[in-house]
TrEMBL record:
GO function terms (MF aspect): hydrolase activity
Residues in AB hydrolase-1 domain copies: 22-232
Keyword list, A-Z: Hydrolase
Protein name: Alpha/beta fold hydrolase
Length: 249
């Protein structure tokens, strides 16, 4: 396994493929396995960079509380460590929020941004309304917990501490003003599921606030859309990257 010293911690990372650089940013209580299908689809044509934030996947936890400012700082330090120039950013959930902050505060580092299931503030992230989903209820295996139990150097028993810190984070952050999104100049794709914990209207607000941004609401999917429709999402990602000036080879 490959680790990089980022700040005061060792973070697991992967680099694969050849072509224009793409950076994958995973979600909260996720590992890189949550975006494995997308990574596999992109390495034929792009150079894909990815790392796991503290307390996620194969990266050990930190004593401090989580914050998107820390996630942004770690992302910048990672890009410097791997000597990656401007990248196409694909972020999922918490990773999408970090991607938005990267595009806002460091536009020179971003070729394009795909923000999957992002929210601008805590009110944009809520439990899905059962009335919107008439599909038969079926228990979903806690895939991310299984990945955590298998991968975490802190051991399965530490998962509750990570979740507790994430819940505190999600209750107080992010705090992004929709008006600030007008400053983003890179090509942007906003994506979410039609039964996401991010309401379609919230995704529409984000897309409408960014000049020229595209909006994709993936049918029949929840907040776990990257796992539920991986082939479709990979096709959409490759098409958007081509339109954003990143032709696959």
């Amino acid at each position: 396994m490959s680790y990089l010293r980022i700040g005061d911690v060792d973070l697991y990372h992967e680099v694969a493929g050849d072509g224009e650089p793409v950076l994958l940013l995973h979600g909260g209580f996720c590992s890189l396995e949550s975006l494995r299908a997308q990574s596999d689809a992109l390495v034929t044509g792009y150079r894909v960079y990815a790392f796991e934030r503290p307390g996620h996947g194969r990266s050990a936890d930190i004593d401090e509380e989580y914050g998107y400012a820390r996630g942004l700082a770690d992302t910048l330090a990672y890009l410097d460590a791997v000597a990656a120039g401007p990248v196409h950013v694909i972020g999922y959930s918490d990773g999408a929020i970090i991607g938005l902050l990267l595009a806002l505060d460091h536009p020179e580092r971003v070729r394009s941004l795909t923000a999957i299931s992002a929210n601008l503030d805590p009110s944009g992230f809520s439990s899905p309304d059962p009335a919107l989903d008439d599909r038969p209820a079926a228990p979903r295996p806690d895939v991310e917990r299984m990945h955590y139990d298998r991968l975490s150097p802190d051991g399965p028993e530490h998962a509750d501490a990570v979740v507790a810190k994430l819940l505190r984070l999600w209750n107080r952050e992010p705090r992004i003003d929709p008006g600030d999104l007008a400053r983003i100049a890179a090509p942007v794709l906003i994506m979410s599921g039609d039964r996401d914990m991010i309401r379609p209207g919230h995704s529409l607000l984000m897309a409408a606030s960014i000049p020229g941004a595209q909006l994709c609401i993936v049918p029949g999917t929840s907040h776990y859309l990257v796992d539920e429709r991986p082939e479709l999402i990979s096709v959409i990602l490759r098409d958007f990257l081509r339109s954003a000036g990143g032709p696959a080879r």
